[in-house]
Write a structure and sequence with these properties.
By secondary structure, the chain is an alpha+beta fold. The protein has one domain. The protein has helices at 65-76, 245-270, and strands at 8-16, 80-88, 99-102, 112-116, 120-124, 143-147, 152-169, 175-181, 184-190, 208-214, 220-227, 232-241. Helix 1 packs antiparallel against helix 2. The chain is elongated.
């Protein structure tokens, strides 16, 4: 695997958290239907993007019961989640705040499980290309995951995740990543949508990128990797857990205390 840092591009996508789950798997070469973005636009460097039907809320420092109400709203999660996608030109180093969860060479990180059906398996990159079946991500001579047509691999966390990334190689239009939370499906990305683009899902075996997702406050604890064609190849799954509710409570109550102190100082100065 490559170890040097690289340039990155950032895209922001907004998805309806209540959209219907994907329908039954499509035929080979056709990505499954996913969650529809409400007026989807993809941002480029120096531009902004947002979808219709979303709202932005500013939370001022509060104290007491008001802070508890804000905490409840945060735990419940927003109606529409903004997922920020950042693409790195190399596998390593990992994005700030993320830790390696599964590299298929070492024991799985505590608090996570990784399962796969009969259509998915771990393969050594040292074996090189398996024509028509599997291609190691560029520079990857260690073990990596291959999801064949009809295959499914699932990463599950006992804690909510605020961010996730993986090293993706030779992406195809029939590859799909689905994010789930406690309320069900959060987002489904297929083909070039996986890295926030509209092109490039042509199976180029020289294409390898680390793709990182910031879930923007959405609760995500399960990630599925599916494919309706050969194949979906990836490695080095990394994640950053979201703060526990107790931590949110301390943060919010702390902000409320600071706000109250500032207000008292202003009153004292005017007296």
């Amino acid at each position: 695997m490559s170890t040097a840092g690289g340039a990155r591009a950032r895209r922001i996508l907004r998805f309806s958290a209540s959209a219907a789950a994907p329908s039954a798997r499509a035929s080979a070469g056709t990505p499954p239907a996913g969650v529809r973005c409400l007026g989807l636009t993809v941002s480029r460097p120096g531009t902004t993007a947002a979808c219709r039907g979303t709202t932005t809320m500013r939370i001022a420092p509060l104290a007491g019961l008001a802070a508890a109400a804000v905490l409840a709203a945060l735990v419940a999660g927003p109606a529409a989640a903004a997922i920020t996608i950042t693409v790195y030109n190399t596998d390593l180093p990992l994005p700030a705040g993320q830790l390696m969860v599964e590299d298929f060479d070492h024991p799985l990180a505590a608090g996570f499980s990784f399962t796969q059906n009969a259509g998915a398996y771990v393969r050594s990159g040292a074996l090189g290309l398996d024509p028509g079946i599997s291609a190691p991500p560029p520079g990857d001579t260690s073990n990596y995951e291959t999801v064949l047509s009809g295959g499914l691999a699932t990463l599950t966390s006992t804690r909510a995740l605020r961010a996730f990334s993986f090293y993706l190689g030779s992406p195809d239009s029939w590859n799909t990543v689905r994010f789930y939370g406690t309320g069900g499906l959060v987002a489904s990305l297929s083909g070039a949508q996986i890295w926030g683009s509209t092109t490039g899902d042509n199976g180029d075996q020289g294409w390898g990128r680390r793709v990182s997702y910031d879930f923007g406050g959405a609760v995500v604890n399960k990630i599925e990797f599916a494919s309706s064609g050969n194949s979906f190849e990836f490695d080095s799954l990394a994640a950053a857990p979201a703060p526990e509710p107790a931590v949110w409570a301390m943060m919010i109550l702390g902000l409320g205390t600071v706000g109250a102190a500032l207000r008292r100082r202003r009153v004292a100065a005017l007296a």
